[in-house]
Amino acid sequence: MLLKPDADISPLGYKSIQGWGGSSLYFKFSVKAASLSEVFQDTVALKDFQPEFVIPWSTAASGWWDPETHSLLGGETPLSEDRWLYVGAVDQGDGTFLVYALWWET
Asked: Rounded CA gap, 3 and 20, in Å?
């Protein structure tokens, strides 16, 4: 997920889905950080993040996966011809972020 090794994360949910022409990993976590640059490696295009970002295929992982209930700051990072990382985050206002990450590959 291109997380920095020292990121202080607390996992809140994880799901792997294989099939339908590809593979996907859904990961929800909270992280103690002043900014997302403390959380993700430089490969993640944080400078291109936009408000009101919508993570695609949000209904594929149900229950704990609920990004549609939040106003997310986020974006898509193409990693190769057949791999993408979608990240959406909410600043909780207490020194933590709630983060949704979807890794998708064909």
From this structure: 27
Cα dihedral 78, 83, 84, 85 sign: negative
What is the token pair recorded at 100? 């949704």
Name all contacts of 57-62 with Cβ < 8 Å and 24+ positions apart: 57/24, 57/102, 57/104, 60/17, 60/24, 60/26, 61/13, 61/15, 61/17, 61/26
Cα–Cα distance for residue pair 25/106, rounded to 1 Å: 12
Tens-place pLDDT, residues 24-64 = 899 999 999 999 999 999 999 999 999 999 998 766 667 88
Mode of pairing for the β-strands spanning 96-105 and 50-53? unpaired
